[in-house]
Design a protein that fits this description.
With 499 residues, the protein is of the alpha/beta class.
């Protein structure tokens, strides 16, 4: 059985083990000056074309006997080093992708952005030095950490992560509030950033406790040089009542505070929505009718995480106690996309500009948000995990994708997926798509049989001699559970036929 069948699976497993070190020793150890770390990072962030394009025409790994990069790999101190030579050889057979001229600049709420990638309002954009570093690395803008008239008293610790199997960071929980800098300090940060980086976009996220504060904050942010005002109607773990997601769940308060914000500024206003609600369109419409220019969505989802079954304490653990906090990261992306779609499918919101966020980690994630109608993107959790450097593959991966598809400008993909999301009663229910089994790829593990029998329709049996699956067509409903669970990618949807 050829290992070529499983090259992508093996390569993905290899790179998923990479620690993505800062100042990676593997790169320093390579005697041939290969960009070992950035190549692996590109693969990790689904930018295979970018990784391939970084390889030299003649791969030196074939003749490198000592493998100093593998010896230097810090993963080896934990268990096994990443087989760097195997990764390089695997992708060296791929064709290079030509990067044609593609424009990532996009207009959002009347503001010209060099690309759609912004830091979202959080700790990743909370002082001058941090944001300046991000701007230097290629981020087009920042939604600065929410500014209020008060400085919150925070707890320690306030972050934790959800892991599953070999994945250490499926989701992330935080119980941090708004900026821990004074109003005066934050205003100075914004002024310096706009002075030093005039072409970058400053979104001033604000949170007031009454109408007067919303108006005053909007006025102060405008005077400080902000390009856009974002109203934080959605933080799920504020200690004060009547702020954050308490506002976002109440359309009347959303309208009241949006109007108050509009009194203090002539800048574009984004209303940041909470996902802790069934129908986001209602508060979003209230915001737009009250003077908002666009919508930002989603903020974090209320959650409880990592319950210890020995002492029944949860995380983040503050002296044995915790609180409901905001859940974010890759796991929330499908939920975020659903809310984005619902707003774009709403007649009263279909033309509203949307800044999308919630689980964006790779250029593919970003493209999905844009395909559902977002013109701007905000990112936090993946930056907290991997650093500002993820912008390299966000930009490069997006450019290579757009170029390969013949697009000239990123705006061409905005909303392109919306026609393909329809109500359930509009889906074809008169045909069936049976699974197709690739006998050459099948390794006989029986996972398809187990899942079909225990969680499906008992439509697969196994040949006791070959361990190959046999489809029982009369029982198969075409649910494709088998293709979803197959670890060897040996099952895929077949031809669709009439029932």
């Amino acid at each position: 059985m050829s290992s070529l069948f499983y090259k992508d699976i093996s390569t993905n497993e290899y790179v998923s083990g990479c620690l993505l070190c800062d100042e990676a020793p593997c790169r320093k150890a390579c005697p041939h000056s290969l960009e070992v770390d950035t190549i692996i990072r590109s693969l990790r962030f689904e930018n295979k074309a970018g990784a391939v394009n970084k390889l030299p025409n003649l791969l030196p790994c074939d003749t490198c006997e000592e493998k100093p990069c593998k010896e230097a790999c810090l993963k080896g101190k934990i268990n096994e080093s990443v087989p760097i030579d195997k990764v390089m050889k695997a992708i060296s057979t791929e064709s290079r992708v030509k990067e044609n001229e593609v424009d990532l600049a996009i207009d959002f709420c009347g503001v010209k952005c060099e690309n759609p990638f912004f830091l979202s309002s959080s700790v990743v954009g909370s002082n001058y030095e941090m944001v300046a570093k991000a701007f230097e690395m290629g981020w087009a803008g920042v939604a600065f950490k929410t500014i209020g008239m008060f400085v919150p008293k925070e707890v320690s610790p306030r972050f934790t992560a959800l892991s599953k199997e070999s994945v250490p960071f499926v989701g992330f929980k935080n119980i941090e509030q708004i900026s821990d800098h004074t109003l005066e300090e934050n205003i100075e940060f914004l002024k310096r950033l706009k002075k030093d980086y005039p072409s970058k976009i400053i979104v001033a996220s604000i949170m007031g406790q009454n109408e007067e504060e919303w108006t005053k904050l909007a006025k102060l942010m405008t005077e400080a040089g902000a390009d856009i005002i974002e109203c934080n109607f959605s933080c799920p773990h504020m200690t004060s009542k009547g702020v954050g997601s308490d506002v976002g769940q109440n359309p009347d308060l959303v309208a009241l505070y949006t109007k108050a914000t509009r009194k203090g500024t002539n800048l574009p206003i984004l209303a940041k929505m909470t996902p802790n609600i069934g129908n986001m369109e209602i508060p979003a419409m209230a915001a737009m009718e009250a003077g908002a220019t666009g919508i930002a969505a989603i903020n974090t989802i209320k959650s409880i995480m990592n319950l210890n079954l020995e002492n029944f304490e949860s995380e983040p653990n503050v002296e044995g106690k915790t609180s409901v906090g905001g859940y974010s990261g890759k796991a929330v992306k499908p939920i975020a996309l659903r809310f984005i779609h619902d707003m774009k499918a709403c007649e009263n919101l279909k033309n509203a500009p949307i800044s999308g966020m919630g689980g964006i980690e790779t250029w593919k994630d970003a493209a999905e948000f844009m395909a559902l109608g977002c013109e701007n993107l905000q990112i936090t959790t993946s930056v907290m995990q991997y650093g500002y450097r993820i912008i390299d593959d966000l930009i490069n991966g997006m450019k290579l994708y757009l170029s390969s598809q013949g697009y000239k400008n990123i705006s061409e993909i905005v909303g392109s997926a919306l026609p393909n999301i329809v109500p359930t009663d509009k889906l074809d229910r008169d045909s069936i798509c049976y699974p197709r089994f690739d006998r050459q790829k099948c390794i006989g593990c029986g996972r398809c049989y187990l899942s079909c029998y225990d969680g499906g329709h008992q439509a697969i049996k196994v040949d006791i001699n070959t361990r190959m699956p046999i489809l029982l067509v009369d029982k198969c409903v075409g649910c494709q559970l088998c293709s979803t669970v197959c670890p060897a990618r040996a099952v895929e949807p077949g031809k669709r036929v009439k029932k």
